[in-house]
Amino acid sequence: MVNDGKQKTGADSQGKTDAGQGGTRDAIVRRRPLLKAAGAGTGLALTAGCLDSFAGSDGGGRQELDGPLKIGVLAPEPANDPIGASIANGARLAAQQLTENGGVDGYDVEVTVKDTKENPGTGKQKYQEFILDDEVHATTGIFTSEVLLNVLDDIADQGKVHLTTGAATPEASARVHENYDEYKYHFRTGPINAYHLGTNLVDFGEAMFDEMGWEQIAVLVEDYEWTRPVSQALDDQLGDTGVEVVMRERYASGTENFTPIYDEVESTGADAVLTAMAHTGTPAVVQWARQQRGFEFGGIHVPMQLPSYSAATEGACQFGITQNSATPKSEVTEKTVPFANAYQSEFGSAPVYTGYITFDAVKQYAQAVSSAGYVSSDEVVTELEDSSYRGTAGTIEYYGPDHEYAHDVKYGQDTVWPLFQQWQDGSQEVIYPENLATADYASPPWI
Amino acid sequence: MSADATATRGLVGLLDPRRYGIRHQAGVVGLVLLAVAPYLVPTVWVRNLTIALFFAMFAMSWDVVSGYTGQISFGHAFFFAIGGYSSALLNLELGLPPVVTVPVAVVVTVVAGLLVGVPALRLRGPYFSLVTLVAPTILLNVFILFSDTFGGELGLDSPAPILDFDDLAVTLVANYYLAFALFVGILAVLLAVTRSDAGAVFTAIREDEDAVAASGLNPAKFKVFAFALSAAVGGLAGAVFVHTPVGNPNPSQLLALTVSIEVIIAAILGGMGTIVGAAIAGIFLRLFQLYLGTVEYVVPVVDTAVADVDLLLFSLVTLVLLFALPGGIVRWAVHGGGAALDNIRGRDTATDGGRDPPDRDALAAVRESWREDVAAMQARVPGAEPGPDESAGGDRR
Amino acid sequence: MVDVATLAVNSVIISALYALVAIGFTLIFGVGGVLNLSHGATITLGAFAAYYASGGIVEAGVGGAVLAAIVVPALFSAAVYKGLIERIQDQPVMVMILTLVVAIAVEQVFLVAEGTQPKSIPSLLDGTVALGGSKFQTNLLVVFALSWVIIAGLFYTINNTETGKAILATSMTTKGAALVGIESDRVNLYTWVVAGGLAGVAGLFLGSFQTANFAMGRGPLMLSFAIVVIGGIGSVKGSLVGAYVIGTAEVVTGAINTRLTGLVPLLLLILVLLVKPEGLFGRELAE
Fold this sequence. Notes:
The complex is a heterotrimer of chains A (447), B (397) and C (287).
Chain A: H1 5-18, H2 27-31, H3 44-50, E1 69-75, H4 82-100, E2 109-115, H5 120-134, E3 138-141, H6 145-158, E4 161-164, H7 171-178, H8 180-183, E5 186-188, H9 194-212, E6 216-222, H10 227-237, E7 244-251, H11 259-268, E8 272-277, H12 281-290, E9 296-301, H13 309-312, E10 321-324, H14 336-347, H15 353-372, H16 377-386, E11 389-390, E12 395-396, E13 419-424, E14 427-432
Parallel strand pairs in A: 1-2, 1-3, 3-4, 4-5, 6-7, 6-8, 8-9, 9-10
Antiparallel strand pairs in A: 10-13, 11-12, 13-14
Chain B: H1 3-15, H2 22-36, H3 43-69, H4 77-94, H5 98-120, H6 125-145, H7 147-150, H8 168-194, H9 197-207, H10 209-214, H11 219-242, H12 251-254, H13 257-270, H14 276-292, E1 298-299, E2 304-305, H15 310-324, H16 329-345, H17 362-379, H18 388-392
Antiparallel strand pairs in B: 1-2
Chain C: H1 4-32, H2 39-53, H3 61-88, H4 92-114, E1 128-131, E2 134-137, H5 138-160, H6 162-172, H7 174-179, H8 184-210, H9 218-231, H10 236-256, H11 263-275
Antiparallel strand pairs in C: 1-2
Helix pairs in contact in C: 1-5, 1-6, 1-8, 1-9, 1-10, 2-3, 2-4, 2-8, 2-9, 3-4, 3-8, 5-6, 5-8, 6-8, 9-10, 9-11
């Protein structure tokens, strides 16, 4: 069965705490300066004395900015992957604009990009390089939830603000909520967390399924960490929309052949599949279109958010629907289109959703440093908590420490409310919400 | 078995400076350099050195079974993953501290290794390699199948660290010494075993298994022993690895095909069947790979930074090295360099003790035994039902 | 539950494709006695050659895509053999290692050049056909038919042409073949070229069915192991049977639980290796 994100959190922190001296997340233990060696072997006592020479001086206290504002950006394959490239370029563009407009307190904003390779180990390594080598003030980025969870303890240890701009797992915010003093440095600028992603699918369904003729639905979700809360939200709420869920499948990560899955969907007579796909989305949509399967296709489909996707799939994504933060032509806010145009002219391609979010994150962070008057993390954290920043993907506000999704961006029509787009004639047409819609939903002709 | 007695003698012998030839002196200098390395390099490189030390342990674990007995394993990542995942799961799920989970993980790895190894070692040559090539893939599929427990393609959360301090630099240095201690321990044990009588039998199995059997020893028993030892070392290194800040229980670090193949490449470049070669080449290979990942230099024509194509360059360089120096860089360097130094000093090259492995190329021996196995397969008359002894290719007594 | 007719047709189609995937691997092992672990990478290369020829770089249509998918991998395979393998073909370990590194390098080339997002390759024929109450993709039926045409052509060539007979003879006994004046190096080269071309076509078919990405060759390589071991190493006929065993097992288990599909071929492989290591069909190349 699907694992509840919240339960998992509880079980995990339980396990960590029970691990006693080795526990990673126990605040009291963590702050104890000496060896917590559960397996201290010979030689450790010997080295422990010499280790002091490696300990840096603790900053502590309020600190004003006295040089360039340095931000580390963690992006997956920024040279090869449009999602990673958008994280990197969104941050670069924000830094460039900030610097051109006088910088922060007169200092330049500098971003350094490192590649996580979507690998938790590499992500941790690169984060530590930012701390040791680049001495950044804050970090942003991180697309993969598994990478974020692996870096979270370092973020807590280092006490540097991190604004996540891709990974959606609510486990991160759960930790902020449960252990605020340790984890308060983590914020998620976007997207809305994975449980809200599911909630948003349901909200979309309540408004649109009737009109689209989706009565019986098969839920197809790829089996990765980020989709667990999505499944949970769909399980909790989809029943309320009046649609009948005829099939639920969390298919294996790395699936390439969708024939058996689609055969089963067709045998259930579903009108449509409701998807949550990122890593496995392309083979899924291409096989659906090529095989002209007898059901419609939409939900969360990350590759379909790419502006160049129609060309990359030779039109196979035609009639597919996906949730998205923004499209290059949609006026989510007055800043959306100018950003998309500036990005296009600077980097020669349109940004993906992570580009909008990262751009907002860097700008919001710079604003927080500027208005706090300090660059030290505790002051910036307080400033970000109170901040309401009008960005390209909506109005960015964060839930408070007492909320179960502490420091996640607020989901709502007045804050961040994703749109739904359908690929029609090779372009991304918005079909929901109504005030942004550029087209009506169209059924595939073979249905 | 007299392995224990010999091992002790070997260890004592190792501590006696009078026995040291030029190679051993170089080895001691190398160990001393590793011991003071954190004071010589930037902290980021302390981290990289820690990764390299673990990788060297993986390579040694491979060498003790494949380099010595000639049973070429293409799936040693299986051991590292079983060790790492067992320890991580015991810690995450049951809350046991690493001091308990690591030894348990070693036992689990040995048991899992024997479950695969005992039947697989009956197979010879390419068949054995095929089974070992497939074993990690099966394990990965099991991890994906039961992703609620094993975390699927992206792995598990980090388990509790063994050593953790407030300051990141201190943590990294402490973990470096943890890795270094483990490295030295494993190196000493494997050197002692392989320089013992058991090691001589391993080598003999590689050279001619039938001759070992004819002399009244049971080669199967020695192969299983080497396999279990290798599993224990690989499992131990994998288990400790996930409790350090440089390692995580995820497939790309512990289970990927590239892990298995890089281990083989390290051992071959270092010189198969030497342990020391695998250790040295393991360290340098991993450091080289990590270095490539930091090079910002943009290659003019293709307009790409070296760091963005690091793994491609790495695979091309290893391809060239393997092709040009199949006997191993370390062997090549030691032969060239060692002989030159000895000539200068007017010494005889044979002074450094008789327990070193024979200079005959280990690969050549494997090559010959494989050729025989393949020929035996080819000679099998189609349709004729082979006897139970032959069908498995092994167990001839 | 999916109906039996659909499962049956799916099994028959996917198995034919799997046979095509494995045959090149079998040929090289049969003739040269080495395991070519760059086989999966050759499949990837075929898929991307088709992608480049059908709009990725030039617009050469479906015909051009098919041609590119055969010629490029065949040349690549020849280059791997002449450049790397020929000198060390009596060292099966080094062949396995070098071909594995080649495979990794090829993956990295496509990762760097094309990124992680999968690419779609044009169908050979668009649309669907109704068969026995179920709809099937025309493209898959074409793939099925072409796979069989190619396999039949291969059988004919091996049994009825000079080169084919030389390949057959070498696979039976290298020494014997040498005695009757067959140059084993030349035969080996032909084998690698043919195997490369076949793998390339398999890559095109797989890609047009599932999309192409840099790591797409890994699955087929594992499938090839399983098929070849089940059929008996070096036996083309055995590979056909092995492909049908694996293809059917995959489709049937996939209908029960889609998560099992990757695991089943490998478990069958281990089972056969432990119980009947010579495979179902001893070893002979063809009859």
